[in-house]
């Protein structure tokens, strides 16, 4: 099991490059199940553990996956299967998105129901209700869900909450169904637009992606396509916060400023200087931040995936701030680890109250999920002395070779195999 060792208290200087978006690449790769023609996807963060899991998922369902640098070619390899293995779905809940394309094409699919995870229960009721609205029947059987429909029908789906996964899931299925499907109260995350672009290249028509009403005009048979994945806004935001917490001047190469408005507005309010140019963003920070409170919300609100790194920075603020988590029910596992570094955080329900301290001190700590792990890196870079982070496999799900990228910006960070 790997550990990350970070010697903190050194300002970051120079540049760090963001990878392609994990959360955009996953549904796009899964959407290749909609066609028998070859698809070529570029700018895929192939080193991430979740991507490796996605490749295994596609292969287990009958696709051939060829990787060359950051380019992934997915092609037909015999006929597709309509049953996803539990071994894969339990490792990555986004695997459940394979159900929609297979249901739309073959009228029957069996997938394990993903369990909860460290940050919450994460049911898939919104997805299932969507498929029922398109005419599917659902049976639960020994931990699996079986969805069937002689032929899925185009129709209107209205979500009770703008779930990112459910929006992507219905869009994918609708792309392979003749007629017009309308999703109301859809999620508006940039990853939805990226998927919409890919579905259009396959031959579907998609209108309104990025708004709360998405219209998909599907086609029974879709073709192949090439597509390049958008930059990872969560990785970019994590680096901006790391640069602010460690102080110094850090350029995040490849960051898309338009995807990070909610975050940069708050960072500026806390005293960071942020410069934006085409294809990069630079953060400059000296000293401790002003305390600034945030509440997470679906896009374009403050992303829940940057809540933990934000909280880590606020541990050093000159005063009290609040962090309200409204998207997931249990997303403060990083607070106890940050407390081991000297942070003063009180968590009550969905809110954390942070009393900023002059400095954090390095300590042995543990990552509990991807973004909690990212928060520990942010804190470790700012802390005095050595921090050893264990359970790095959580971080490796969402950040490609993070220690190597940070070393390029002057951090003392290395990986050891314990
Ligand atoms: C995606 C992202 C994840 C991010 C999240 C919110 C991927 C692979 N993951 O996850 O990094 O944190 O968006 O921005 O893209 N919910 C239900 N019923 C459902 C579906 C969701 O109650 O059927 C709840 C969830 O439990 C959660 C909230 O809705 O509390 C948000 O979930 P959702 O938007 O679906 O997130 P994911 O697509 O799982």
Quick take:
The protein is an alpha+beta fold. The protein has 2 domains: 2-18 and 231-417, Alpha-beta prism (UDP-n-acetylglucosamine1-carboxyvinyl-transferase, Chain); 22-228, Alpha-beta prism (UDP-n-acetylglucosamine1-carboxyvinyl-transferase, Chain), CATH 3.65.10.10. It is built from 14 helices and 23 strands.
Describe this structure in words.
It is built from 14 helices and 23 strands. The protein has helices at residues 22-30, 49-60, 86-89, 99-106, 125-133, 164-175, 190-202, 233-246, 261-269, 307-314, 333-339, 370-382, 393-396, 402-407; strands at residues 2-8, 12-17, 39-42, 63-68, 71-76, 108-112, 137-141, 144-148, 156-158, 179-184, 205-207, 213-218, 225-228, 248-253, 273-277, 280-285, 294-295, 320-324, 344-348, 351-355, 364-366, 385-390, 412-417. The strands form six sheets. The chain has a four-stranded mixed β-sheet. Helix 5 (125-133) packs parallel to helix 6. The longest helix is centred in the middle third of the chain and has 14 residues, at 233-246. The chain is elongated. The model has no long low-confidence stretch (mean pLDDT 97). The site of uridine-diphosphate-N-acetylglucosamine has 21 residues, from helix 1, helix 5 and helix 6.
